[in-house]
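User: Here's a chain of 241 residues. Predict its fold as tokens.
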Amino acid sequence: MAETLWDGLLGQLVWVLLALAGSLLLPGGSLGERLGLGPGRLPLPRLALALAGFLLLSNGLHRAIHALGLYGGTNLAELDRLVRDASPAAPLLVLLAFGLAPALGEELLFRGFLQRLLATRLGGPAAVVGASLLFGLAHLDLVHGAAAGLLGLYLGTLAWRAGSLRAPILCHAVNNGVALLAAQGLVPEAGPIADPWLAALAIALAAACLALATGLLQRHLPPADPAGGPHEDHSSGPPRR
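Assistant: Prediction complete.
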């Protein structure tokens, strides 16, 4: 069991190293500028709204998977089983391997490096879609990958419009932590888990939160902090005019 946890940590470390190496292909001066690690442009209330929306989306997709009868036999089911079995003996290692490490490794590689690399060639929206597809494929499971791809669209849009990787890392880490607590039965579900109407409502509310938090309906946003990267018009923010 512990070996599986350490394997997960090693895999995330490899992704971090790939992102750091790949950052050499990105425009910018410092490492933070190239990967978009600056503060960005979202004030705290919008960041909180984006976080709430991501939790809603994750919950809605989880309910939808159960409602469609797709949960059994997937990586998601195996992950939940592993968390339940390993948590009593190694709770901190579980939190690190399945909570914090993926939030850092996956965001650095897919939103920090790949999305920004694609953005230099394709522009922001296409880069969000491309990086999200790669994120879904990396999960090597049809159901889990489809859900991850949709979550990646949310996180990619957030990174693009916020001009920073900090917001996606926060959303990813908090959501993973909540999911770990739920797998251990420490977070009660609100309503029947397989209720399709609750799933649809959660997903719709998540889309509204993302639009409001990132100003998707606005033509312009304030410029990102310079530490987020000098090429925000391509890699992390809307085009400037």
